[in-house]
TrEMBL record:
GO molecular function, one term: transcription cis-regulatory region binding
Signal peptide start and end residues: none
PROSITE patterns: HTH_LYSR
Protein name in the entry: DNA-binding transcriptional regulator, LysR family
Domain of life, per lineage: Bacteria
Sequence ranges assigned to domain HTH lysR-type in this UniProt record: 1-58
Keyword DNA-binding recorded: yes
Keywords of this entry: DNA-binding, Transcription, Transcription regulation
């Protein structure tokens, strides 16, 4: 067992996906699968179970995660202390990210940053926006990148880096092929797939529905999933409709795997903001400040989105 294996294991556990973990860590999926198999062989247990809701930890996996978290915390402390006493300039940056930025634009952004600053060691903790906020307030994290509505952000400075529209999507190979719009009164009766209740999207969407005289309790929710990839797959299997940030489904819309459905009562006029958070009472220094400036620069978002488009194109060459 080694530190890299622990980092791979914890990332998979957080994002509930081998594919997404591979992108975040800049590995191939076979490479991280091989590392997990080595761990499972060493301890003679299964650490993950695969299901429609992504991968989940087994009982042994949950216990392993508990100790892995402690080991990684000690390892981070050791890295920082050894760098300090040796005079080396390797610097740990503890970054917290909610699911969409953590899975989509941050892996490319981090790769670009480390290309210019190889001495930066960026550890990414992925969770709900509220968990990232709490991590900053408790000084467990240095910088946070979150999406959507934030309920409690006291003592934090917020910097909006992008706004993406939330859209209603359906399977294009179904009765929705020739349907362009739907009334809200009809939508509440349609099978609906959504993120889990703890996700800030649910809070945000519920607030929006209330402006139309409805709320999430009125929706015909047939499935709650904890990641966007699982939701996309469920919609493409024609299990129901879903509201998803546009960047998450942009490729599927262009490939005509999904179709956008508009509301007759008026466009879904809300955006899903991505913000960078730091503590108000703390001045960032060193590579933390450089990385923060990089994250909030308009160039970073544009460059990352450009590279994502190019990477998606390469999949079909």
């Amino acid at each position: 067992m080694n530190i890299e294996q622990l980092e791979i294991f914890m990332t998979i556990a957080k994002v509930k996906s081998f594919t997404r973990a591979a992108k975040i860590l800049n590995f191939t999926q076979p490479a991280i699968s091989s590392q997990i198999k080595q761990l499972e062989k060493h301890y003679n247990v299964r650490l993950f179970e695969r299901g429609s809701n992504g991968v989940t930890l087994t009982e042994a996996g949950r216990k392993f995660y508990e100790y892995a978290e402690k080991i990684m915390h000690l390892y981070s402390e050791m890295e920082s202390e050894i760098a300090r006493v040796s005079g080396h300039k390797k610097e740990l940056i503890k970054l917290g990210a909610s699911f969409s930025p953590g899975n989509y634009f941050l892996p490319t952004a981090i790769k670009n940053f480390k290309g210019n600053y190889p001495q930066a060691y960026i550890r990414v903790n992925i969770g709900h926006s509220d968990e990232i906020v709490e991590g900053l307030q408790e000084r467990v994290l240095d910088i946070g990148v979150v999406e959507g509505e934030i309920k409690e952000a006291r003592d934090l400075e917020r910097y909006k880096v992008s706004s993406n529209q939330l859209i209603l999507v359906a399977d294009i190979h179904s009765r929705w092929r020739n349907v362009d719009e739907i009334a809200i009164a009809e939508l509440v009766n349609e099978p609906f797939i959504t993120r889990e209740e703890e996700c800030s999207l649910r809070y945000f969407l519920n607030s929006y529905l209330k402006t139309l005289g409805y709320d999430m309790n009125d929706m015909n929710i047939i499935m709650e999933l904890t990641n966007w990839e699982a939701i996309k797959q469920a919609v493409m299997k024609n299990l129901g409709l879903a509201v998803i940030p546009y960047p998450v489904v942009e490729r599927e819309l262009k490939e005509r795997k999904l179709k956008r459905i508009r509301l007759k009562d008026g466009e879904l006029r809300f955006t899903w903001d991505t913000e960078v958070l730091i503590r108000r009472d703390e001045k960032l220094t060193g590579l933390k400040k450089v990385f923060f400036d990089f994250l909030i620069s308009p160039y970073m978002v544009w460059k990352t989105e450009e590279e994502l488009v190019e990477r998606n194109k390469m999949l079909f060459i």
